[in-house]
Design goal:
By secondary structure, this protein is mainly alpha-helical. It is built from 1 helix and no strands.
Length: 70
């Protein structure tokens, strides 16, 4: 009977440790999700800024006249 009681106590200890580990992992996942959301927002802002930049003053290759040796 004593052996059974010891096994139950060991299982309870392991369960408590696992519950703590799961909660710690959950908190890390929450932090990482917040970080990813922030980074996605920053990337979106950067993309919008890049799209708003005026095009270059240089003519495209199709608009360029060929050099005189052609």
């Amino acid at each position: 009977m004593q052996e059974l009681q010891q096994k139950i106590e060991d299982l309870e200890t392991k369960l408590a440790f696992q519950e703590l580990s799961v909660e710690e992992l959950n908190q890390e996942v929450i932090k990482l999700n917040q970080l990813v959301a922030k980074q996605q927002q920053q990337i979106s802002l950067m993309v919008n800024k890049l799209m708003d930049i005026e095009p270059s003053n240089m003519a495209s290759e199709a608009d360029e006249t060929p050099p005189p040796h052609y």
